[in-house]
Amino acid sequence: MSAQILTITSGKGGVGKTTVAANLAAALAMMGKRVVAIDADIGLRNLDVVMGLENRIVYDLVDVVEGRCRLRQAMIKDKRQPELYLIPAAQTRDKNAVSPSDMVLICDQLREEMDYVIIDSPAGIERGFRNAVAPADKVLVVTNPEVSAVRDADRIIGLIEAEEKGPGQLILNRVKPAMVGRGDMLSVDDVLDILAVELLGVIPEDERILVASNQGLPLVMHGVNGASAGEAFRNVARRLEGEDVPFVELVQKQTFMSRLRALMNGQ
Amino acid sequence: MGRQIEIKGNRDGLLIRVTDHPDFAVYEGLRRELDKKRDFLQGSRIALEIGRRPMNDEQLAGLQALFDDQGLTLWAVIADDSETREKAREIGLATRLSGSATDLEGNAMATVPNGKDSGTKELPVANALFLHETVRSGRSVVHEGHVIILGDVNPGAQVIATGNVVVWGRLRGMVHAGAGGDSAAMICALDLNPTQLRIGDQIAVAPDDSHAASVPEQASVRDGQIVAEPWRH
């Protein structure tokens, strides 16, 4: 059994790469998978904070690359899930401390022991991005339903194709169904229309994501059922496992008649 | 009445243009001219421009023989009449000058003495680039010749060609056709919704009220302006 290596990237910053990485890693671990998350954002590490493991860091990715510790020593065991690990980024170095071939080497070592390796890519298209993508079996592109984020996702997909990592799969994050319904936000179809890649998940905007990140407890671990964003992340994890999970229709389709009726009711 | 026969040098050899005035006797006129300039023409490759004059295969073969007799090679016949062009191709003659009308730096590569003809603006088929993929943001496709894309051109991508550009898909990025100054170039797309279009030296920006109907359209320069209209054949 060999691990699947997933890289989570976006091009644009702030679309929710780290949130997706943390929740996806947690969701897969909760399904009984052995998962290691790697923070490839050297110099701007976040994944440890979102996963609530910051205070346990002793060694980091750069320490492994530069031979100051064994790979096992840099793998921080999660507080809640027994088979969830984190390899944190170094905060005091920069992207050049690691090379794409270092990443390939590390992931090859992890392949035998794990089911999933999830790499959180930094924003941008430079060295850090190339480090993150180099070992990937599959690239998950995160974007938001806004024009600039979609533009960057398009660029990223082009770069992934150039690296022969396939077209990638899309996770559309922070969708506000009400706004889409009013026509004020790009819909899932609008985004797919431009990017023309396979859709892996649609994550609705959810205030609890922010709260969960601040607490260092990924939303999927909150155990609240019906938490829509959490549910969406679990669905992504199930789809990765090969399950055919239907997409929840987020938007109540406004037909002409329903709009007319609303108009007549003075709404 | 202007000169009935003009001879001009170009990169591919010599270009001879004969007037397409119906009263002009092509064979006689050419034979006289070739005899007169025998020394100058010696061993040249000749492209012959016959304008609107229609010619059948016999007449074209006669032309070939005429040049052969003088030890010259007729390699291309440039005609406005499409049937004549087809006939010429059938007997193994080229119907276009090689290379594009202009290269990327805007230098004329194969000029036509009389600029009114549009038949010579076509580029050789071999000079077309065919892409079966989506051209995504950040990509830049630059080509000397025509570009045909089977896929979308996304916003943030650019396609620059000295010839025409055909997008069998959605055009939402920037396309520059006729880069180098050919304002006769055109741009076609199944869904023409670009951030910007350039043809020759003209630049057009998509109108703010983005079009509703998605029908195939073609854009070309008319009266010094880029206009887009529904595609028709």
Describe the structure.
The complex is a heterodimer of chains A (267) and B (233). Chain A contains 12 helices and 8 strands. Chain A is of the alpha/beta class and 267 residues long. Chain A has a single domain, classed as Rossmann fold. In chain A, strand 3 and strand 4 form a beta hairpin. The longest helix of chain B is centred in the first third of the chain and has 13 residues. Chain B starts with a strand and ends with a strand. Classes of the chains: A alpha/beta (267), B alpha/beta (233). At the A-B interface, helix 7 of A face loops of B.
Q: For the largest sheet of chain B, list the strands in their spatial order.
A: 5-7-9-11-14-15
Per CATH, the class of the largest domain in chain B reads Mainly Beta
Structural class of the secondary elements of chain B?
alpha/beta
What is the rounded distance between the termini of chain B?
Answer: 36 Å
Instruction: List SSEs of chain A in N-to-C order.
Output: EHEHHHEEHEHEHEHHEHHH
The SSE string of chain B, one letter per element, is: EEHHEHEHEEEEEEEEEEE
Rounded to the nearest angstrom, the distance between the terminal CA atoms of chain A is 58 Å
Biggest β-sheet of chain A: count, sense, barrel? 8 strands, mixed
* Overall structural domain count of chain B: 2
The number of helical elements of chain B comes to: 4
| The number of domains of chain A | 1
- Please report the total strand number of chain A as a whole number: 8
The fold-level CATH name of chain A is: Rossmann fold
CATH architectural name of chain A: 3-Layer(aba) Sandwich
What is the CATH topology descriptor of the largest domain in chain B? Pectate Lyase C-like
Overall CATH architecture of the largest domain in chain B = 3 Solenoid
The percentage helix of chain A is 40-55%
How would you sum up the global shape of chain A?
A: globular
The dominant shape of chain B is elongated
Please compute the radius of gyration of chain A using only Cα atoms: 19 Å
